[in-house]
Design goal:
Blueprint: E1 8-13, E2 20-24, E3 31-35, H1 45-48, E4 52-57, H2 60-74, E5 79-82, E6 87-91, E7 100-105
Parallel strand pairs: 4-7
Antiparallel strand pairs: 1-2, 2-3, 5-6, 6-7
């Protein structure tokens, strides 16, 4: 799934008591740390979407469609919504327990 967001796993610590990985993009000097956790997911989407990570895309709707198809193919629950035409988000509640992923259109930088 990370590849669909233009990211790759840049570091993986599977031997840890709590497995985790860092995800980043080649063209940007950053990485997001993702931890495995077995807590119960936040079910209320209004609460959960207050915490999100955001990515830019020239085609957010197309990207969300790809993510949805990927999730369906893997039997992973998927849900999505939007804050505006340019600000979409998706949730994979079986994977993301306390945040959603926002995909913003690149034109948002021009506003």
């Amino acid at each position: 799934m990370y590849e669909k967001l233009g990211c790759k796993v840049v570091y993986n610590q599977t031997e840890s008591k709590i497995p985790w990985a860092m995800v980043g993009q080649d063209q940007l000097n950053f990485a997001i740390q993702v931890l495995e956790d077995y807590e119960k997911p936040i079910e209320d989407l209004e609460t959960k979407r207050k915490v999100h990570v955001a990515f830019l895309s020239s085609n957010p709707r197309g990207l969300l469609n790809e993510i949805e198809n990927w999730a369906l193919g893997k039997g992973i629950k998927h849900r999505e919504g939007c804050w505006s035409e340019k600000e979409l988000y998706f949730d994979l509640p079986d994977i993301f327990i306390n945040f959603v992923v926002e995909v913003m259109h690149t034109s948002i930088l021009e506003d």
